[in-house]
Design a protein that fits this description.
Layout lengths: L3 E4 L6 E4 L9 H12 L1 E4 L4 E5 L2 E5 L8 H22 L3
Antiparallel strand pairs: 1-2, 3-4, 4-5
The structure holds zinc ion (ZN).
The site of zinc ion has 8 residues, from loops.
């Protein structure tokens, strides 16, 4: 079975794996990707809302040209995995 080199979808790290279905370098990254996927994201031209369980983060008055996906990642980065995990555990 050949060793395949891939880039982690969560942190971007390069890693080697024998499993072609694998998308993340570690369990931590896999869990983080799962938690992030639990966030409900709503956006239009000037607002971006992320909801983790009962916790809502809302950005308003954004530049319409701003990259919403990059802002979303920044919010997730700033909150950090522990807080997101706790917030997601609180059901809406
Ligand atoms: Zn990773």
């Amino acid at each position: 079975m050949p060793l395949i080199y891939k880039f982690c979808e969560t942190c971007g790290a390069r890693y080697g794996t024998f499993r072609s279905q694998r998308k993340h370098c570690s369990n931590a990254c896999r869990q983080r990707a799962y938690r992030e996927s639990q966030a409900t994201t709503v956006h239009d031209e000037t607002t971006l809302t992320l909801q983790f369980g009962r916790v809502t983060v809302k950005l308003v008055d954004l530049d319409p040209a701003s990259d919403k996906e990059s802002l979303r990642r920044t919010i997730i980065e700033v909150l950090g995995p522990e807080l997101i995990e706790q917030a997601t555990a609180l059901k809406p």
